[in-house]
Amino acid sequence: MNDWSLFQIAAELGAEIRGDGALAPTSLSLDTRTLxxxxxxxxxxxxxxxxxxxxxxxxKGAVALLVDHVVDIDCPQLIVPDTLEALQRWGQxxxxxxxxxxxxxxxxxxxxxxxxxxxxxxxxGWKTPGNRNNTLGLPEALATLPEGLxxxxxxxxxxxxxxxxxxxxxxPLDAGLITLVGTAHLENFPSGQQGVAEAxxxxxxxxxxxGVWTHLATDSWCRWIAEQPWARHAQALPxxxxxxxxxxxxxxxxxxxxxxxxxxxxxxxxxxxxLPGEHQIRNAALAAALALHLGFGGDQIxxxxxxxxxxxxxGRLNPLAGGGLLLDETYNANPDSILACAQALLLLxxxxxxxxxxxxxxxxxxxxxxxxxxxxxxxxxxLARLWAYxxxxxxxxxxxxxxxxxxxxxxxxxxxxxxxxxxPPGARILxxxxxxxxxxxxxxxxxTH
Length: 449
Prior knowledge:
By secondary structure, the protein is an alpha/beta fold. It folds into 3 domains: 6-82, MurE/MurF, N-terminal domain (Udp-n-acetylmuramoylalanyl-d-glutamate--2,6- Diaminopimelate Ligase, Chain: A, domain 1), CATH 3.40.1390.10; 99-307, 3-Layer(aba) Sandwich (UDP-N-acetylmuramoyl-L-alanine:D-glutamate ligase); 316-448, Mur ligase, C-terminal domain (Protein-Tyrosine Phosphatase, Chain A, Alpha-Beta Complex), CATH 3.90.190. The protein contains 15 helices and 20 strands. A 6-stranded parallel sheet has the order 7-8-6-9-10-11, sandwiched between helices. Strands 15-16-20-17-18-19 form a 6-stranded mixed sheet, with helices on both faces. Strand 13 (258-264) and strand 14 (267-273) form a beta hairpin. Helix 11 runs parallel beside helix 12 (367-381). The longest helix has 16 residues, at 83-98. It is globular. The two termini are 42 Å apart.
């Protein structure tokens, strides 16, 4: 809980105060839809001017406002020239004031949030809630960072160059983890995957001198990052076969998750997860290796990893009333994550393995071929059928071949006789798609019907 009064916050931000400066907000909010009572509402200028929602924020329980001009409302206000800059400075100042012994960052094209959860559990540390991983959400979360923490794990996302660099300016890192350099957001990088690697590598560039970061030994782009002049101040810790840290004896426990052994200089550590899929084994191995290297005990790491459960949209398994299982991976999608989740689906018990996929976005001029390749990859893995929808549904289906059906949008997928209602009883179903296509609607329909 934040213990800073508006007086203290104003001193950090160089803000003017109107109203009761002794008031201490309990949180920050950028959105009246999710605002909790006791919050300070930050009026950002974006697609909509946040100042227009100040009155609504007060009705929802806000106790103060951060604004760029005095608002005609009877409420304590902090007035600054730029509310975005002030938000970021607030989070940065709070971290500086109560900095934990270790501050760690997690990024990657797939698995950021799950790996953040795993790493925080292994360390017994605080973590950024939800997916507050950008230049708005991260400082919002840091603004009320508790005191006395041993470790804080921060998720850091990006869609364009420079975003992670800015995040590491707000929150300088002692250690870091890159799950994978994949193909997400390719349309924003003219230099292709090297551009993505450079952007992910901003996390390494932002590490304090002598800091350490983990990555998969098989990830050639992470190896490339480690060789760059701007990364040589930090120690790269590759994890995988032939390395000091490696995982072995992998065992699928089906819907119950998985188990494996982590081999390390400290010996062999048996680990168990409630998250299904080999991709989660890899994520956990990265987290455990970093935690061990930083001096955390094996028992604590094992107990922490075993405690992590899947969240909605991020690997949650739902039994279906008519038999079968639904693997809810709806939060977002790119080619790497779709294929990884499909592999996880195939390890589960049940009937036919099928996928319902919304189209992917931000793939650039090769989007059509990427969808065809992803469809072909799903068929090669052994999925029996594919239901696809969105602007590239036909390309998904073309790549998959026989057994695929394409629909222009969710409504057509839902209502057509050969749509969702045609999925066979007892099937193992992967549901995934770009945020734009709101694949959680598919989950809701399947759980209901």
